[in-house]
Design goal:
The structure is a homodimer of 513-residue chains.
Chain A: E1 4-6, E2 10-14, E3 20-23, H1 31-44, E4 58-65, E5 80-84, E6 87-93, H2 96-109, E7 111-113, E8 118-124, E9 126-130, E10 136-142, H3 150-162, E11 167-171, H4 186-192, H5 202-213, E12 218-225, H6 232-235, H7 249-252, H8 263-279, E13 284-288, H9 294-298, H10 301-309, H11 315-332, E14 336-340, H12 341-347, E15 356-359, H13 363-371, E16 375-378, H14 397-402, H15 412-415, E17 418-425, H16 435-439, H17 442-451, H18 458-474
Parallel strand pairs in A: 3-4, 4-6, 10-11, 10-17, 11-12, 12-13, 13-14, 14-15, 15-16, 16-17
Antiparallel strand pairs in A: 1-9, 2-8, 5-6, 5-9, 7-8
Chain lengths: 513, 513
């Protein structure tokens, strides 16, 4: 739901032969906007229109932006104003990202009439003044547990944009695999990926990042450390501790850890993270930090020795030392650091104040980190893989929707530290066959919840969620049904989730747009 | 796992240019076998073979069957003997269904070597004597809550055959929709389906039934009654009771019920079920019978009156009366009746002894129905949609595997009444996007458990389940991963679940084979 919406009671008609977007001034020089209007023309006009009714038309939508700067960064202005009246619609926004959101909104307002086979707009005229409640609205995908083809990631970027979400958090590596190509360390992916075919080349990465850029979606990479990274050691010897007692690598490789006392580890990270910051230009880098297992450190003589020599009296202190070194490296590349909440819990004293704490262990930690002055992104309630690989209960969309992401008891200043949330889709039981199904429609409900605090009645929410679900399916996203079709009160609406059955329906070819 | 398997320690090689199936005698006149060998050639030889090694080959597999009778019925012999030795393999079976299973087994024994790029057979020679432990191994799909395209059902039939399963239980209708075309009552689907596009024409049904036949999979239709059938009333007035007090049709249509006192209902069923028995030639017909809600009957004056006039003293008695009439109709068409276990619980006195009781409410009911002399099919532990629309926990594949479907405490004669099981995939949150993912690989684990009681070690089971999962994916079934790829001890094996990444991999076009 938009932040603010004024509507009327008129009906306008739209017909592709008498409709055009018009990019005004600066906007006409933005390649992103040029491509976006083509894309949305294909999305909007994908039905087999056979009738052009008599009546007032919407013929032109004029788009203007204050700046066509296409450097997509955290915190960019995403606001827009959309007006629709007879003949003329207008989209205006400070940045191109707002205009992209406005196009999405427009595409949801122009509807195809299944009975009369024409396009129309109900409740015109419109004045929509809109901007997101939270600046961070994301989905996390995991390409370490199973390889996800490039096309699957592109599809996720499309679906994010359809839900006005703006972050793809790419958990690139884990104990199981390191699939992203590094030019500095070619063996890293060559030996650390599942196979030589399961590698993202740097061209692949660029394609993914650019595809996101053109949809206003940032790609935030994660390189998880000091644990969850056994596979780094396959290509670069000397990084991973050998801890044969507590977790021999053959059977419990997922406990393996970087050697926090090894200078060559920090040398490696300096080069590796520097290179990664060039192929992932977002400016925020996630360095994991979750689930460190101290047993390995405890049984390694060189570590105990190092701690004694350097007056490090506990493992959490050693862990903080590691994080301090890693964050110093991020600092040299001017990266905003992001890490899972263990880094805050165990090492907050060394965390730079511009760190983003990614909370996955409960809302309590969320409030605490905010009270300590850190910016936070919340994921505790949004593990969409729950109920599957991790057992337990599936996260229901109603729970996502009914849960206000903003924690209770914060001052207005503290509330500003709450950046938003990410739905996480951990990959143990996820592949290209089910990631879209597992993610959508539920992540879209989170997207809506993060966009605005306008809720609407329960019945209204059902129909809106269902419509958005069908809309994603119309555009080629393999969303799963909210409920049976009967939820739609009108029989003709029940067809929209099976557009492939409808003669003449042309699914937009999003890869080419 | 086969029932009985003897293996050796030789390696044989297989190369498509020097390999042929040979249909002997009668077998050569079976269209089903002719198509099956073509299909399995495409399935087996789908990799990009570049090397033909020196060494002993398997060059011919001779197939003979005692009978090419292609009337696929419950209880048909499915046994086969498969031998593989240098040069010659043999498949022999009483019926063609056994030969189809043997081809599947052979396709799993011939493996592609990812390193050397050739096909080989390890552990030759083979002598496999095989037959299923249970004759009923199925999956139930629901086309009433959401429409499933014909292609989705064909895909399910393929996947069933890959897992040596032999029943597609098609829950055709429910309160929400009646999507199968009836020539006798054309308005039934025209008005009772979600839309005029969400209808299975009789040609569609024939295509589905025939596709199953060619894979040895029976299609058992279900027409649920006397409740779960509101949509029947949309096309044929007078069938459904109007019960505005307890469940007005606008809001609780799923409680609607046939009028059990109306002769026109039985007239309708006589014609309708007769017609359905011609387009669904299986010989078993499932007539539902679950979740009858007596509140509606209780508030209908004509029903109370009828009960008084006919000395029917309770609603269960009226329910039994309805079932008696329905089963009498099935009897006139020589159909084996099948129904959900409520029919057994509430109306067993009227149930013909040849009835199959489909148990969904616990293993207790299963044993009781068997002790009462009924044949049973078990589904209580196999609701693959659990954890999704019905909340609660997902059914884990390990639970399916570790659970012996045979109830404890039965005599050998009673054990014969345990026909097998079906994995149920209720459709509230299922569509063409996620039905394969929700069903497979888990239903395949049930298939394996129903086929034989050979278990193997736990580690062995993991690898076998994973391999079968990847095999399905190679053949185009959108199965979800068992775990991350690391479970495969050999790195080259980890590619098999992403065959589309492998240069030259040709996915078999199963629709044409």
């Amino acid at each position: 739901m938009p932040n603010s919406i004024d509507t009327g009671s008129d009906v306008l008609y739209v017909t592709p032969t008498k409709f055009a977007f018009s990019l005004l001034g600066e906007a006409s020089r933005s390649d992103i906007l040029q491509k976006a209007v083509k894309r949305y023309e294909a999305i909007i006009f994908s039905w087999n229109e056979t009738n052009t009714p008599e009546g007032p038309l919407l013929t032109t939508v004029m788009i203007s932006v204050d700046s066509i700067n296409d450097d997509l960064k955290f915190g960019d202005d995403e606001s827009y104003i959309l007006t629709i009246s007879e003949n003329i619609g207008t989209i205006s926004s400070p940045r191109i990202w707002g205009a992209l959101h406005a196009l999405e909104t427009l595409s949801q307002i122009i509807s195809w009439n299944h009975t009369h086979h024409y396009y129309n707009i109900l409740h015109a005229p419109y004045l929509i003044q809109d901007s997101p409640r939270f600046p961070w609205r994301g989905v996390m995908v995991d390409t370490a547990r199973n390889f996800l083809p490039v096309d699957t990631l592109l599809s996720t970027l499309d679906a994010l944009s359809f839900n006005k979400m703006n972050v793809l958090h790419w958990h690139t590596s884990d104990a199981e695999a390191v699939p992203v190509e590094s030019k500095s360390f070619p063996d890293l992916a060559k030996k650390g990926a599942y196979s030589e075919l399961g590698i993202y080349s740097q061209e692949d990465v660029q394609r993914i990042v650019t595809y996101g850029l053109y949809r206003g979606v940032r790609v935030v990479p994660e390189f998880d450390m000091p644990t969850h990274n056994y596979a780094y050691g396959l290509g670069v010897p000397g990084l991973i501790l050998d801890c044969p007692i507590s977790h021999p690598i053959e059977t419990s490789y997922y406990h393996a850890s970087f050697d926090p006392t090894s200078e060559s580890v920090y040398k490696f990270l300096e080069v590796f993270l520097g290179e990664m910051s060039t192929i992932f230009p977002d400016g925020v880098m996630h360095v994991g930090g979750d689930e460190v297992d101290y047993r390995c450190w405890n049984e390694t003589a060189s570590i105990i020795e190092y701690m004694q020599e350097n007056n490090i009296t506990s493992f959490p202190e050693l862990y903080a030392y590691f994080e301090k070194r890693v964050h110093a490296i991020l600092g040299t590349y001017n990266l905003i650091p992001m890490a899972w909440d263990e880094v805050y819990t165990s090492a907050k004293s060394v965390l730079p104040k511009n760190s983003i704490v990614h909370v996955w262990r409960g809302d309590d930690t969320l409030s605490k980190a905010i009270k300590d002055g850190f910016r936070v992104v919340s994921s505790s309630d949004y593990y969409l893989n729950n109920g599957f690989d991790f057992g337990g209960l599936q996260v229901q969309w109603q729970d996502i929707y009914n849960n206000d992401p903003m924690p209770q008891g914060l001052t207005p200043d503290e509330q500003k530290l709450m950046l938003g949330a990410e739905a996480c889709v951990w990959g143990e039981e996820i592949n290209h066959n089910n990631i879209e199904q597992r993610t959508w429609f539920r992540a879209g409900v989170l997207g809506e919840r993060l966009w605005s605090n306008q809720m609407g009645s329960e019945a209204d929410v059902w129909v809106r969620v269902m419509k958005q679900n069908c809309r994603m399916q119309q555009r080629g996203i393999a969303a799963t049904p909210v409920e049976n079709m009967q939820i739609f009160p009108r029989r003709d609406l029940r067809r929209v989730c099976t557009p492939f059955l409808i003669p003449g329906y042309k699914q937009p070819d999003l890869r080419k747009l």
